C-alpha cells in the first residue's frame, strides 16, 4: 500500500480548516465505529496545533443543533481528559498507572511478525500496513491492534505504544499511551477485548474468520487474564514481510524537506519559539518578532518519529518560521540569556522543563474545557467536574 502523505494529510492550515468545515456530527455519531464511517480525520492537525478543539467548537456550534453534537462533544472531552491526566502525572503516563492483570508476564519487545504485518490475522496485518502507509489509523483499528498485542501476544503495552506513537501523525503521549493503558487495564477496570464478529461488523474488508480472535468474548477475557501467549497463525510464514519504516530521533538529513541540526541562533531581540505542537497562526499577530522553530532532540531520542511524521511537521514549521533549531533546547536558551522569548505551553517531556525558564513567557494552550485543579482519576469524574450540561449549553446557546 503506497499513499502520498501530502495528499492524505497536507500540512497546510487551509486543509485543516476545510476538514473542520465538513464535519457532520450526526453522521459521525451513527457511523464512527465503522472503518469507513464519517470520522473527521482531523486529529493530526489538532495534535500539532494547526487548530485547537476550541476552534472546532466554534465551527460546529455555528452550524448544528446540540442533540446532533453530543457524541462529538464527548470525544472532544476524552481528549481533554487525557491532557488533564498528563498535566498532573507527567512522565508517569509512560508507566503503569495501576497494577495490571494479576499473574501475567509481558514481553518487552514486539515480535517480528507483528512489526512486519504477517501475523496471519487480516485485521492486524492490514492495520499495521495502514499505519505505516498513512500515519493514521481509525480509532477502532487502534483498539483492536492494541488488544491483540497486549492480551493475546502478551507484549507490554509500553513497548507497543511507543512504536505506534512514532508512526502516527497524530501521535500524542497522553491520548496514545493512556489509551493503550486503558486497553491493558492499567488505566481501566478491565481488559479490552474484541473478536472476529466485531471486526466483520465494523470492518468487513478486514474480516478475520477462523483465526485466534474468532472466539467468544468470555474466552478472550480468559486468554487476556491467562499466562499463555497466542502464537501467530500457521500461515504467517507464507506471508511476505512489509517494509518497516525506521523511527528516527531526528529528521533524515538527506531529505530536502527537512532541516539538519545547526548551531544555536543568536537572537538580538525577542522571539517566538515554535515547537511541533504549536503550528497554527497565532504567532502571525506579531509580524516583527523573529520566529524560531525548535526541535528538542532529547525528547525525540526517547520517543522517535517516522520520516513521514518529520516531513509533516517540518514542512509546516518551515512555512511559518524564519529558521529551525535542532538540538538541545537548553543550549538555545543558554546562548541567549538576556533575550525575552515567547512560546506556547506544552506537556511534552523536556520541552516542558526547558520552556519553564524564567526568560520564556508562556501562552496557555486553548482548551475546549476548563482543567480541574485536582486530578480526576476517571473520565466520568472529569466530565462531571467540567460540567457536561453546562458545557453543552455553552456550545449551543
Strand composition percent: 5-15%
Helical content band: 40-55%
- CATH topology of the largest domain: the name is DNA Cyclobutane Dipyrimidine Photolyase, subunit A, domain 3
How many E-type strands? 7
How confident overall, as mean pLDDT?
Answer: 91
How many domains in all?
3
3D architecture notes:
Strand 6 (341-344), helix 17 and strand 7 (360-363) form a beta-alpha-beta unit. The termini are far apart. The protein has 3 domains: 5-94, Alpha Horseshoe (Serine Threonine Protein Phosphatase 5, Tetratricopeptide repeat), CATH 1.25.40; 112-238, DNA Cyclobutane Dipyrimidine Photolyase, subunit A, domain 3, CATH 1.10.579.10; 271-363, HUPs (Rossmann fold, 3-Layer(aba) Sandwich). By secondary structure, it is of the alpha/beta class. The chain has helices at residues 5-8, 13-21, 25-31, 43-47, 53-61, 66-89, 112-115, 122-134, 139-152, 157-167, 173-184, 196-202, 217-225, 297-302, 307-320, 329-335, 351-354, 379-385, 388-395, and strands at 247-248, 271-274, 290-296, 305-306, 323-327, 341-344, 360-363. Helix 8 packs across helix 9. 44% of the residues lie in helices and 7% in strands. The chain has 19 helices and 7 strands. The strands form 2 sheets. It has a 5-stranded parallel beta sheet with strand order 5-3-2-6-7, with helices on both faces. Strands 1-4 form a two-stranded antiparallel sheet.
Amino acid at each position: 500500500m503506497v499513499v502520498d502523505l501530502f495528499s492524505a494529510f497536507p500540512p497546510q492550515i487551509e486543509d485543516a480548516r476545510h476538514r473542520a468545515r465538513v464535519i457532520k456530527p450526526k453522521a459521525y455519531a451513527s457511523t464512527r465505529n465503522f472503518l469507513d464511517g464519517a470520522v473527521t480525520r482531523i486529529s493530526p492537525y489538532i495534535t500539532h496545533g494547526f487548530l485547537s478543539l476550541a476552534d472546532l467548537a466554534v465551527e460546529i456550534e455555528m452550524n448544528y443543533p446540540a442533540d446532533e453534537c453530543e457524541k462529538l462533544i464527548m470525544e472532544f472531552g476524552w481528549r481533554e481528559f487525557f491532557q488533564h491526566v498528563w498535566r498532573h502525572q507527567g512522565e508517569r503516563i509512560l508507566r503503569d498507572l495501576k497494577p495490571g492483570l494479576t499473574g501475567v508476564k509481558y514481553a518487552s519487545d514486539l515480535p517480528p511478525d507483528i512489526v512486519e504485518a504477517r501475523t496471519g490475522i487480516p485485521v492486524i496485518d492490514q492495520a499495521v500496513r495502514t499505519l505505516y502507509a498513512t500515519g493514521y489509523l481509525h480509532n477502532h483499528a487502534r483498539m483492536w491492534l492494541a488488544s491483540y498485542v497486549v492480551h493475546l501476544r502478551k507484549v507490554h503495552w509500553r513497548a507497543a505504544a511507543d512504536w505506534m506513537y512514532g508512526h502516527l501523525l497524530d501521535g500524542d503521549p497522553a491520548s496514545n499511551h493512556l489509551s493503550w493503558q486503558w486497553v491493558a487495564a492499567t488505566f481501566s477496570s478491565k481488559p479490552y477485548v474484541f473478536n472476529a464478529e466485531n471486526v466483520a461488523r465494523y470492518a468487513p474488508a478486514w474480516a478475520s474468520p477462523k483465526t485466534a480472535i474468532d472466539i467468544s468474548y468470555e474466552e478472550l477475557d480468559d486468554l487476556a487474564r491467562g499466562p499463555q501467549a497466542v502464537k501467530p497463525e500457521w500461515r504467517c510464514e507464507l506471508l511476505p514481510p512489509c517494509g518497516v519504516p525506521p523511527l528516527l530521533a531526528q529528521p533524515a538529513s538527506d531529505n530536502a524537506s527537512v532541516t539538519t541540526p545547526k548551531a544555536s541562533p543568536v537572537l538580538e531581540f525577542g522571539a517566538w519559539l515554535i515547537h511541533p505542537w504549536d503550528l497554527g497562526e497565532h504567532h502571525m499577530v506579531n509580524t516583527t518578532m523573529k520566529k524560531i522553530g525548535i526541535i528538542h532532540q532529547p525528547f525525540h531520542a526517547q520517543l522517535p518519529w517516522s520520516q513521514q511524521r518529520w516531513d509533516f511537521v517540518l514542512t509546516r514549521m518551515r512555512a511559518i518560521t524564519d529558521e529551525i533549531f535542532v538540538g538541545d533546547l537548553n543550549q538555545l536558551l543558554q546562548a541567549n540569556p538576556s533575550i525575552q522569548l515567547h512560546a506556547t505551553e506544552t506537556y511534552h517531556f523536556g520541552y516542558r522543563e526547558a520552556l519553564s525558564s524564567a526568560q520564556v513567557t508562556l501562552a496557555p494552550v486553548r482548551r475546549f474545557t476548563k482543567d480541574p485543579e485536582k486530578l480526576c482519576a476517571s473520565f466520568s469524574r472529569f466530565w462531571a467536574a467540567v460540567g457536561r450540561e453546562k458545557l453543552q449549553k455553552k456550545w449551543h446557546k
